[in-house]
Please model this.
Amino acid sequence: MKIQIRLLSLALAGLMALSALAEAPAGYYNGLTGLKDAALKTAVSKLARNFTRSGEYGTIYTNLKYTFQKTDLYPNSKRWWDMYSDQTFYSPSFSGLNREHSFPKSWWGGATNVPPYVDLNHLYPSEIKANSAKLNYPLGEVGPNPEFDNGVCKVGYPVAGQGGGAKYVFEPADEYKGDFARTYFYMATIYQDMTWKYTYMVSSNTYPTLNAWSVNMLLRWHRQDPVSEKETRRNDAVYSVQNNRNPFIDHPELAEYIWGNKKGLPYNPGSTEPVGDPVLTTPVQDMTLDFGRVAIGKSAMARLLFKGENLTSAVKVQKYTGNADMFTLAAAQIPAALIVTEEGYWLNITYTPTEVGEHTTRLLISGGGVSGSRGVALTAECCPVPTLSQIHATDATDITEEQYVANWDAPAGEDVDYYIVTRTMYSNGTAKTEELVAEDNSLVITGFADSESETYSVRSSYLGYESAPSNVIVVKHNGISDATMDAPLAVAETPGGIRLICDRDIVGLRIYNVSGQPVVTAERAVNNTEIMLPSGVYFVTAGTGTRPIKVVVR
Model:
């Protein structure tokens, strides 16, 4: 329930989101043309070295869990993009994750007052166990019988010729090997003048910095796993935060001129080598693009990657058969120049169902100078608008000074995508609220030592819809937990206002300013009511006999 509608705030938030990412300005790389070898590497270093810092090193590092929300979430999702594990974590909670220096900070001696300590271009969220297993080992390819293997990354003895003398190496998944290779190209270039404490992969000299074995491996990873849309989006996001970029993502050919098969040649941006006959490598024949489940009245978007080599004309995409009218293509013809790039071309396809049921169609893909055609299946399911029962939260368990387990009853017979736990922490007369995501009907909540007491309520989410909030559970350090709050009314801060927390309807709500003038009155208010207020100090009370609650709106 909203007492005030925040249309202007929402509109401004939308505009900010659209303008948040930033591409490299025109001419950003102009000064590199014609340079080669060491001179080229040094010019790249000077171009990207001096990034913008928004505060002290320690503060920037502490705030990385908030900065990562701009750089390391899946598109249109709250899920963290973790390149180290297949576990699922959701923002804004950072529980279970570390701030990982993919290029280990111990290699430069561990100093925390130097730019690489907070350089986003090599900092990623990582699941804790994977990060602990990785330690400061170099990148490499793991031999048989790894010491650690979570299905995404491995740690173990290196294959022959790798490791640079380290006992173990860290091997990422194939889909991320190019990402890590280009990260290391960046670090070995931007910080080429550093003195290294550990020299598994680098030497303390200006050129070429990377040791021979690591050059061979990283170039191979770089070629086999080209720049992805994920990297491009992240590069733009990093640029919007710290005003520098990873040049090896924008111009992958730079690696060939500095270390690879074009070493010794003057740099020619975007140059490619002729390869042969026209080839469309993806999409492949009879692949399926699944949109999943969508509630009637909503839409879903999926993306189909087009990549190829030596195409001579545009590639055509046509819909035919089945429920073609429920699927919309962003383009029916894709220029060859977009498909033959390192990143390829992502075709946006939107599913907008008009009736409940399973829907399919096929795409016919032809042209580009490639002989024949190929088909791709599109599948989706439209479901009725879900009816979600109110969740019943139950007492917290396993309460310690540091953490507790929040619990609730799963709704019988209902499909649920995930649960949203609203946690409110009370300390020194103030309240702080955060939302956590859980897949099961319990959640370990950490950081309990930072608050005097806490409350939680739970909502379920399915197909983009949410249930009403549950009852409120109180958690105290003495281990007492109950669904009836000591006071019938509590107040949590929200951006630009407050949120009411109550275990039952509040009658006769009154909010006064410091002059004692009423600014909000409501005959009845319910749990989770949000009230927008100008900045200032206010007193909240209700006809139930509650003492006035002092709040500060920022």
In short: The chain has eleven helices and 30 strands. The radius of gyration is 27 Å. The longest helix spans residues 174-190.
